[in-house]
């Protein structure tokens, strides 16, 4: 019975870590898709930002996590390269810009 009493507090401590891991997993998957499309790893950054701050992040939203409370924002590094397009297969159709 004492073990059950400690189970709930342990789960409450571990839950935020599991949620963070899921955002990092989504970010890693998107990172790999972009690299697989020929963009060098040094040519872009991916940032996880709160959904309400995604517009101010200065990039393009290419994914989301934590029940859409976090957005993953793609920023192309501009090393003399004017092509800042995100590969079509990065992110999801839900995240695609509307025409």
UniProtKB/TrEMBL annotation:
How is this protein named in the record? DUF1161 domain-containing protein
Region annotation (Disordered) maps to 77-99
Q: Sorted alphabetically, which InterPro entries does this protein's record hold?
A: DUF1161
Q: Which UniProt keywords apply?
A: Signal
One Pfam family from the record: DUF1161
Biased amino acid composition, Polar residues: 90-99
Write the signal peptide boundaries.
Answer: 1-21
Taxonomic lineage of the native organism: Bacteria, Pseudomonadati, Pseudomonadota, Gammaproteobacteria, Enterobacterales
């Amino acid at each position: 019975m004492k073990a059950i009493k400690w189970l709930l507090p342990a789960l409450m401590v571990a839950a935020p870590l599991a949620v963070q891991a899921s955002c990092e997993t989504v970010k890693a998957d998107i990172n790999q898709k972009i690299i697989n499309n020929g963009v060098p790893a040094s040519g872009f950054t991916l940032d996880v930002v709160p959904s309400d701050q995604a517009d101010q992040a200065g990039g393009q939203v290419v994914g989301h996590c934590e029940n859409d409370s976090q957005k993953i924002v793609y920023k192309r590094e501009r090393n003399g390269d004017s092509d800042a397009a995100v590969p079509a297969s990065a992110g999801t159709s839900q995240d695609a810009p509307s025409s």
